[in-house]
Predict the structure.
Amino acid sequence: MNGPLRRSGVVIMVLFGAIFVKLNWVQAYKADEYRTDARNQRVTIAEYDRPRGVIEAGGVALAENIETDGELKYQRVYPKKEIYAPVLGYKPLSGIAVGIEAAENDILNGASDKLFADRLSDMFTGDSTSGGNIVLSLVPRAQDVAWKEMTGNERGVTKGAAVAIDPATGAVQALVSMPSYDPNPLVSHDTDAASKAFAKLNDDKDQPLLNRAVANTLPPGSVFKVIVSAAALENGYDLDTSIPAGAVYQEGGATIRNSEDEVCPGSQITLKGALTTSCNTGYSKLGVKLGRDVVIDKAKDFGFEVEGEKVGDLESDKGLSVAASRMGKISNEDGSVDNAALAQSSLGQRDVRMTPLLAAMVAATVANDGKQMKPYLVQQQLDSNRGTIYTAKPKTLREPISAGTAEGLREMMVSVVENGTGRNAKINGFTVGGKTGTAQNAANANPHGWFIGFAYDKDGKAVSAVCVMLENVPGGHASAEAARIAGLIMKAAAGRGGN
């Protein structure tokens, strides 16, 4: 063999070797990426060749499928439309799924290792079974009441959120965000129509795609006084301890006044009386007396983030993304304590920002003897034959307060509902405790109305803890309507109301 032929042969062998290596690299390392690429229409057709798993709650189907006559055999549908959309999210034909549809995608589309037995069975039978199913912790009766009362509220408010939790387990009983959206147009097999529907929602100034229950933070106002009360009870105060009050309190550049002249005008008031009447001057002075570190540390105990610490998402790293509730640093430029900021922060104002989810968790902690349970939405994962492959187990997330402190806070919060600002939350046959909050925000804007609370049945069992937040409430007493709605949600969660 002459030289040129030898060289040609070597080049050909090298090229064949390169092709061999490339093919093996594609098969070993890139196959899954190419298979799941959104541009791979064969994958899309195969995915829609069998029904996606059902998402349900309380025996009610919330996300299911209908058969079509098209190339894609199944169409995803959401029968309850706006009511559950912030929780369920949606699974578009092209693009990224969101919500529970994203968090549980491997179960719903049948790709999870937990469903290996289903896939193995299909290999022998030639069948194409559906994906696995998801059972949510939501209580349909409570969810429906929350949606109905929020969207039909008596103040004409169009933005807000409501969250209800089982205090003993962390199971989310209701989660509503308004305004919401109908996810059905977003999963249309007409991708142009789906894209236009998404663009319209995304451009809406009222942000219907924003889940206000978990992804929006606002000043909580006086509901933050529960946390300051906890700090006081764990630092030598009791319910009958007198604290300084008065009509006006001046601290640095901050002037603190009560909501009405008749609220704690005297120079002293008990700690229980201060929470019952929502005494602003008393709590501002109390926060300054306790000190910045005590107030901030107690807020951190409950789940607030101060220096970029991550609290965690509702389900998992793929679940509903939860915004961090934050405290400001409450310090001057030289690092010293800014007492004016501390006085305002002790009222849930200044730089304090909170999600409705965490607010509900605060109430649940008080109801659960100081233990804060990890909230969850997924109650069960089922295989295609509805066999159970996962059931949620309650987990203690943290213990912000002692059982004794929780007992004191419960007595104070029951007084708020029985004798103070939270009377609208009363439920016949239940012991209800809570705290109202009216939060100032932008200049010349109506305040936000908050209520957090809990309900015990006649047997002494905590049946629900709730937060209702209404944005920019007109007409004064912004928290009164939030309290009314909260009572109805808890009643429904306990099986005593709703449709």
Notes: The longest strand covers residues 431-439. The radius of gyration is 27 Å. Residues 3-36 form the longest helix (34 residues). The CA atoms of residues 110 and 116 lie 8 Å apart.
